[in-house]
Amino acid sequence: MRSKLFVPGARPELFAKAWAGEADALSFDLEDSVPAERKAEAREQVAGFLRAQARHETDKLIIVRTNPLDTPHFEADVLAMAGAGVDLINLPKIERADDVLAAVAVLERAESIHGVSRPIRLLVNIETPRALRSAARLAGAHPRVVGLQLGLADLFEPLGIDRQDVASVHATMFAVRVAAGEAGVFACDSAFANVQDMPAFRAEALMAQRLGYIGKSCIHPRQVPLANELFRASAEQVAAAQRIVAAARVAAAEGRAAFVVDGRMVDPPFVRRAEAIVASAGGGSAVVDNLHP
User: Is the dihedral of CA 154, 158, 163, 168 positive or negative?
Assistant: First the structure.
């Protein structure tokens, strides 16, 4: 999931364009981009579009960001999306492990009503101070949680933290990535609001890539190709990883856990990283396969 494109739920004229675009994942948004008086309308539009597309195979990961758990819209959002072929429900403003469990209970009821056999997974937003402090607990709260989504705007703006302060961005990215690693889930980087400043988008995305994030959220299609480029392993990196994986098989057969590849000592942490690079080379489809083995 190198690129995750937000699609406003109240803008149905954008749905087909996004579906035909280059993003690995589409995140249909029922929360911040939809005014209160249009919540029900947006929900119906997104659910209707996704149900119509369900018969078409796609490698894209389909995500819906619902309204927060403590709003009157949450249960209706989940009920509508459970039968629409959604891969992930993106939970905003989550702060406690109990919130995750409450969301799972709603999701299980919705799946039962619709006869859904393939469990829908959860992507949990880290976008408040409490969520940041509790990120590892949120990520490990339930097996349905497969990833953490960093939300820098929601986190920084109320606190007056300058988004251009690289040290603050790096520290927050690092904390969320380590929390995700503790729970064994992926981390996806935040959206970047200034769609005109592509150099700044590149710099922030590259920072996330170096910290082991799976990809970056995009709010405009022009950001998608750059995210795809930056989070794609190069041919040389994939080839090197394949050599490590192949050598690891030979070493395991010979009873060795450490060995040399391309002049470098390799042991289990490097093998796991190589396996991840090989798996991610498939782009969006690899993420779907990993979510639904």
Answer: negative
Please provide the size of the chain in residues.
Answer: 293
28, 46 contact by CB (below 8 A): yes
Distance CA 18, CA 32 (A): 18
Domain boundaries, the chain: 3-232, 235-280
Where are the extended beta strands (E) located within 105-206? Answer: 121-126, 145-150, 186-189
As separate numbers, helices (DSSP H) first and strands (DSSP E) second, the chain gives: 13, 10
Q: What are phi and psi of 234, to 5 degrees?
A: -70, 165
CA distance 105 to 155: 27
Q: Are 100 and 68 in contact (CB under 8 A)?
A: no
In Å, how far are 5, 11, 292 from 221, measured between CA atoms?
7, 14, 27
Q: Is the pLDDT of residue 287 over 80?
A: no
End-to-end C-alpha distance for the chain, whole angstroms: 16
- pLDDT tens profile 254-268: 999 888 999 999 888
CATH class of 3-232: alpha beta
Q: Give percent above pLDDT 90 in the chain.
A: 78
| Type of residue numbered 117 | S
Cα–Cα distances (Å) from 168 to 157, 164, 175, in that order, read 12, 8, 11
